[in-house]
Amino acid sequence: MDIFSKIAAGEIPSYKCAENDEFYAFLDINPVAKGHTLVIPRREVDYIFDMPDDELARFEQFAKRVAVAMKKAFPCKKVAQVVLGLEVAHAHIHLIPMQTEADADFRKPKLELPAEEMKQIADKILAAFNG
Predict the structure, then answer these.
(1) Do 35 and 96 meet the contact criterion of CB atoms below 8 Å apart?
(2) What span, in angstroms and rounded, lies between the C-alpha atoms of 99 and 96?
(3) 92 counts as catalytic
């Protein structure tokens, strides 16, 4: 079981932002912006384009619901969607609230937010997702 599967299963703590039977969203612990969220399938699959078309469509629909919740929780111009995927062998989408494109720059220093603030951010997104 990889690290993201352990997070989705609750074996490793995370700041949950949204979930359903197939997918899980949680805050990135090394965010490039406040609200930076990772969306993953619960099923282990390394490469997003190895997902069957119907599953990939549901994955994107779930990510869209998370992005809408993020925009409600953190008013921003847009929510960036970035798929990189080399650092963890588990398909995932980065969702990043942004005012400018610089907010989605992975080369800049990562934010270091206290645990309580991370919890508050995740709770706001989760409330908007469920609301």
Answers:
(1) yes
(2) 10
(3) yes
Residues 103-130: pLDDT tens digits? 999 999 999 999 999 999 999 999 999 9
Q: For residue 112, give Cα distances in angstroms to 24, 33, 115.
A: 23, 10, 9
Catalytic residue among 36, 90, 92, 94: 92
Cα–Cα–Cα angle for 74, 80, 46, nearest 5°?
120
Cβ contacts of residue 58 below 8 Å, gap of 6+?
22, 23
Backbone angles phi, psi at 45, to 5 degrees: -145, 130
- Tens of pLDDT, residues 19-29: 999 999 999 99
Residue 67 token pair: 């992005």
